[in-house]
Design goal:
Structural class: alpha/beta
Radius of gyration: 25 Å
Distance between the termini: 53 Å
Strand content: 15-25%
Helix content: 25-40%
Order of helices and strands: EHEHEEHEEE
Oligomer: single chain
Shape: elongated
Amino acid sequence: MEQFIPEGSSVQTIRELIRGATPGEVFCCRDPALFETTKVALVAEKVADITVQLIDEGDYIVRQVSSRRRADQKKSEQLNDRQLAVVRALEKVLQHCRKEGVQLIGFSDELVAQPAHLDPAEGISPFALDLDTSDVYRGADSLKKGV
């Protein structure tokens, strides 16, 4: 079902509309500021499967947002946008490690950090730090079946 949000609607009115919405409902508006307010209200109410559309004078959808639960999102073999952002952030952290002279060394299921000027072939420094990888890092050895 589609319904227009009246221009000049208060945040409270918009939130009440969203709370009373049924899954699949679409809210439309023509004012960009009202669209932004409705997006904020949608997030605040945490109601899933609701769509908000900004409509132009020719009745074309200019912008659209939809709410959904993270668990309802399709699982893909590709990284999603948020995951890609995390990977980019990790790459920046690794660049900082290099810049600051920190080397990371992987051992089966753990990573250790030590100064880059030390040669890992001569052994790991007793002052090397074990990194808490929060079970995100896995060495290739652990990927073998039965290990």
